[in-house]
Prior knowledge:
This protein is α/β, with parallel strands linked by helices. It has helices spanning 2-22, 106-114, 132-135, 138-145, 158-166, and strands at residues 66-71, 74-78, 83-86, 124-126, 153-156, 172-175, 184-190, 193-198, 237-241, 247-252, 267-272. Helix 2 crosses helix 4 (138-145).
Amino acid sequence: MKSTRCFFIIVLMALAKIGLAQVREVSISYDGVHGYDSALGQVLEWSSLKEEPRVQSSDKPPEGLRLRWLGTSGFELGDNKTTILIDPFISRPRVSNPFAPLIIDTTAVDELILKPMGDRNVDAILVSHAHADHVMDVPLVLSRSTTTDHSPLLVGDPNTVALVESYHLSAETRLLTFDDGVVHYLIGKFGDFTVEAVRSLHPQYNFLPWRGPEGEIEGHPPFTGFDYLSYRNIAIAYVISYIQGIEIRFLRWSNPPKPPENRGGRSARFGNPGEEEQHHC
């Protein structure tokens, strides 16, 4: 009798453990994020390493304008007519084995990137470079966002395009090679947003004089972390202009060429402004 009772207790514990494993918290947390001052509310501020003041996102933002942070370098930028995704990465794969394939978290992508957008179409997906924590979820986002009537424009370097093609996806792309000394591209207008791309250099890591895996992406998914490669160590910076003189710069650069001048109005920067801050990217 005692052994039978112990057996059932063990079975119940095992079932409870399996059940807990199936319960996943699908949410974005900003707790402990450097540069977020909860005492002042939702504000955007430069690094404490820079002697610059805190900057409110906007005193009177244009109606409908929104900027949603997805974690790491991912953002959703849009208004009532247009939606642009920048480095949409929300999966958090385990990295205990660096040679294990990285699997896209389809639930997280659906719940945290796509579901909050409702019925809005994705007009453009801008990718800075093809390391896993920037581009890994892009094939799924692109696939989910493409219909018979609408397809987002994918903007990125040759490795980003090669990665998407490895999934056998047909996409409208704007390929940025930065050949022949080119450092700047005008991508075009998306509603009231004007997008430009600037060549920049992927920064080195804090703990290692290395810019991450670099080379030419080959093969087929699933890929390991070392299969996601930057193209010539380039990390594309995007400059997005909006009405009322608003300019938003998504930067991840080290020793960059001078970006387009701010043409007046308000400007906000996101990402790595220089080698003083060399976060994982």
